[in-house]
TrEMBL record:
Coiled-coil regions, chain positions: 3-103
Record's keyword terms, sorted: Coiled coil
Keyword Coiled coil among UniProt keywords: yes
Superkingdom classification of source: Eukaryota
Designated gene of the protein: Myo5b_1
Name of the protein: MYO5B protein
Organism: Stercorarius parasiticus (Parasitic jaeger)
């Protein structure tokens, strides 16, 4: 059984690795194609007059900025959708907290007194430890100096 589990894990890892390698190969191919397009555009640009080169460069920059703008709009839409989802969850949790607080308000007084007594007993037990020290973080250097001397 243990060997089967290891073998299954190894196969899963191998499959994941192969998928990752395939994705990387596809990415490299896409980058090669993009590089070829850019090289062709660059060669074409060199053959143009200086005014046409400037206009071509501006056109390329406009295209790049438009694509970037679309990507940013898509990201904004995702973030807005996520914000709405989180607001809904927050409302649900706030309602649960209010319901819980309302249910705690209706708990009989003797039960609350019993809970307080239990908390006090727990606090007393925790304070029985020896060798424990409570201090403020900013007093630490002074405390260390006093312990050393």
């Amino acid at each position: 059984p243990f060997l089967r589990l290891l073998e299954a894990q190894l196969q899963d890892q191998r499959r994941e690795h192969e998928e990752e390698v395939e994705a990387l190969k596809n990415e490299v191919e896409a980058m090669k194609e993009e590089l070829e397009k850019q090289q062709q555009a660059f060669l074409q640009t060199l053959q143009l007059s200086p005014e046409a080169q400037v206009e071509f460069g501006l056109q390329q920059e406009i295209t790049r900025l438009t694509n970037e703008n679309l990507d940013l709009k898509e990201l904004l839409e995702k973030l807005e959708k996520n914000e709405k989802k989180l607001k809904k969850q927050l409302k649900i949790y706030m309602k649960k907290v209010q319901d819980f607080e309302a249910s705690q308000a209706t708990v009989p007084a003797e039960r609350r007194q019993h809970e307080r007594n239990m908390q006090v007993a727990v606090q007393r037990k925790e304070k029985d430890f020896q060798g424990m020290l409570e201090y403020y973080k900013e007093d630490e250097p002074l405390l260390i100096r006093n312990l050393i001397t």
